[in-house]
Amino acid sequence: MIKLREEESEFMSKLLIEGGHTLSGVINVSGAKNSIVAIIPASILAEQEAVIENVPNISDTNDLISILNLLGVDSTFTDNTLKINNSNLKNILIPAELSTKLRASYYFMGALLAKYRHAELYYPGGCNIGARPIDIHLKSFEKMGVQVTFLDDKYILDAKELNGADIDLRFPSVGATINIMLAACKASGITRISNAAMEPEIVNVADFLNSMGAKITGAGTKEIVITGVNKFHNGNIKIIPDRIEAGTYLLAGALIGKDLVINNLNPNHLEALISKLEASGVKMQIDSDKITVSSSKNLIPINVKTLVYPGFVTDLGQPMQVFLARCNGVSLFEETIYENRMQHIKYLQKMGAKIKMDNNNIALIKGPCHLHGTSVTATDLRAGATLVLAALIAKGITKIDGVKHILRGYDSLPIKLKKVGAKIKIVE
Ligand code: EPU
């Protein structure tokens, strides 16, 4: 039996998980990573102050706060509430060591353009799950009158005038939709985004911008209309529950739970996952803000294809594969959003999963597999979550390296799992 340590260290580098222990009790879901990472850059648009509640304590939050501090913003982050005061905000180059730490640094492009008509930063970082170009963001800015220069690995965005425009996205990119909303809310005139992304986090960001005086309608649909305004006032928002974190724990419950309650979630945001689990035979009690789930035997194999919202979200595609490995027969999984989101497969295979790859984005998964513990590495955030799920059901002890990836997006994961009965230990 592993002896557990009480506290979690931000410097932890490995997780040890002893599998096979039933999970029971309540897991409280934190605020959404993909909301807070846009809302922090958006907060520089407040006239002076912004108050953001239900903020997840993840490293992406802390990295963005570091960028705010560099820009002269005063902030306090206590009890999941982030208060910012940007009276001393200044527009300076965001250096490579900060912008490359995470993908969402690109939201400072839209926010700084709105505020100053000028932004300078290095290429954004983030998980290595594909090429992840930002051409849609940049082309959209250009349509609004922004001159884009790429010099010495650095983007210089400059707009003598920032004008509203009709922008038809060739793909409903989450990041581009939010970046356009940010720039457009203080541009001259009206911006219409067609084929916009419809993810719930976009509604959360629009609600925050509207709380500061922006005029955005249609967020959450394919057509968003933004009427530019000159002046913003102070703002506030509560971050919505993280549907990916909720979905990850829902899968944990479906795999090895007994009346495991996933609390503080919005089931409407999880419809695609819930319907797949139901089709496979998982029994759930679904309430307005929580789901109670237990593991079942004789799970029916199912096919899963990732799509933009409201389809099956790519961020739960990797964790879902552990569930498919437990179904009775062959399931087909297809990833359609990112071209390199299957790096975890070799580690699932090492743990005993029977998975055959086709074309780097299709996996044939034959279950029910009996996994065993071994040493594995989290190559990206959701790969990490996937290996945690696999470790929870594996026989013996699994050692997971690369835990910093998991900490980018899961608030207090070891503590939350330990509380419901997992045997999980952090080692430096
Ligand atoms: N794309 C382009 N050009 C662009 C923008 C996107 O070709 O200018 C392509 C991407 O390469 C990708 C697809 O479009 O193949 C989707 O990209 P999108 O812009 O929608 O994603 P993102 O904004 O980069 C956000 C989340 C991701 C999540 C996706 C999809 C943040 C910081 N990241 O990424 O989150 O997978 O939306 O929902 O909000 C994660 O949480 O694990 C994660 C990767």
Structure description:
- The protein is α+β, with helices and mostly antiparallel strands.
- It has 2 domains: 14-30 and 241-427, Enolpyruvate transferase domain (UDP-n-acetylglucosamine1-carboxyvinyl-transferase, Chain), CATH 3.65.10; 33-238, Enolpyruvate transferase domain (UDP-n-acetylglucosamine1-carboxyvinyl-transferase, Chain, Alpha-beta prism).
- Helix content is 31%, strand content 24%.
- The chain contains 14 helices and 23 strands.
- It has helices at 33-42, 59-70, 96-99, 107-116, 135-143, 174-184, 200-211, 243-256, 271-280, 317-324, 345-350, 381-393, 403-407, 413-419; strands at 14-18, 23-28, 49-53, 74-78, 81-85, 118-122, 147-151, 154-158, 166-168, 190-194, 215-217, 224-227, 235-238, 257-263, 284-286, 290-293, 304-305, 330-334, 354-358, 362-366, 375-377, 397-401, 423-427.
- The strands form 6 sheets. Strands 21-22-1-23 form a 4-stranded mixed beta sheet, with helices on one face. The chain has a 4-stranded mixed beta sheet with strand order 2-14-16-15.
- β21 (375-377), α12 and β22 form a beta-alpha-beta unit.
- The longest helix has 14 residues, at 243-256.
- The two termini are 19 Å apart.
- Bound molecules: uridine-diphosphate-2(N-acetylglucosaminyl) butyric acid.
